[in-house]
Every structure is written in structure tokens, then in C-alpha cells.
Amino acid sequence: MAEIEQIRKEVDATKAELASAQAAKDATEAELATLQASYDEVSKKLADLEATRAKMEAHIKDLQTTQEQLQNGIIHLREGTILFQVDQLLAQAVVRPGLSEEDSNAAIKNIIDDTNKLVLRRLGIEDQGQAVVYVDRQNIEVATQKQINRIKDSNGGSSGCCWKYYCW
């Protein structure tokens, strides 16, 4: 009986060891599941970062291409022929006083047409009636009205109106 008791104690000890080993196994599996979830999350973040990196590298390459094009453009501008400077006076004319509204309008239109022809010549483009100088119709009407008002204000005096067109 002592022998049976001894065997029972060994069986109970083995069962306790088995239960302890099972608990350790369960805890390890739970930890493994947590680590697997963390690994999956980190893998996803890494994939996102890799995609962002690829986009950034492509964007950097585009920026480098743009920078190269701009540098080439600047070099070309420095070495090329400059036809017009900013704020360069393109044309200047005086509209005679005493003209009717139609004649003042025609005079202003002629100034614009002459300026257009000058610009076409400087650009080396054959004049085929195309407009490269644009003046808003409303600006022409305002200019005509100013010319007429100056005539009225000067009571028929000799005050003309000077028109200047600048490059911008």
C-alpha cells in the first residue's frame, strides 16, 4: 500500500507538472498570438512606410527633373537673345487734341496696331493680322473717354494725350 501511495504521489506530481506545463504552453501560445499580431501590425506599417518612401523617391525624382529644367531654362535665358525687358517701353504716341470720339478711338487703335507690328517684327514673325499685343476693349473706351474729357476740360486747347505701352 505504501507502494501504491508512492505511485499515486508520483502520478499526482506528474499531473501537477503536466498542468503546469499545459499552463506554460497556453501562456506561451497567448504570448505568441500577441507577438504575431504585433508582427502583422509592424509589417503593415513597414509596407506603408515602404510605399510612402517609394512615392517620396518618385516625387524627389520629379523635383530633380523640374530643377534641371529650370536650371536649363535659366541658362538659356542668360545665354539667349532677350527681345523685351520687363517694363520696357514698347511704343509711345500722342493723340492730337480736338478729335471726335470715333477719331480718338481710331487713333488709339492705330497706336495698338503699330505696337503689335513692332512686337511681331522683333519676334521675327510675319504679320498675318494676328494680335500679340492685347488691350482690353474697356481700356480703349476709357482712354477714348479721357481724351474727350481732356478736350472738353481744356475748352479746345492744345492738350493732347500721350499713350505708352510697356512689356510685362
* Largest sheet properties: 2 strands, antiparallel
Run of helices and strands? HEHHE
* First-to-last CA distance: 116 Å
Widest β-sheet, arrangement of strands: 1-2
Q: Helix segment count?
A: 3
% residues in beta strands? 5-15%
Label the structural class: mainly alpha
Whole-number radius of gyration?
Answer: 44 Å
Q: Which runs of at least 5 residues are low in confidence (pLDDT < 50)?
A: none
Shape: rod-shaped
Mean pLDDT across all residues, rounded?
81
Question: Tally of extended strands?
Answer: 2
Helix content: over 70%
3D architecture notes:
The chain is mainly α and 168 residues long. It is built from 3 helices and 2 strands, in the order αβααβ. Helix 2 (101-123) crosses helix 3. It is rod-shaped, with a radius of gyration of 44 Å.
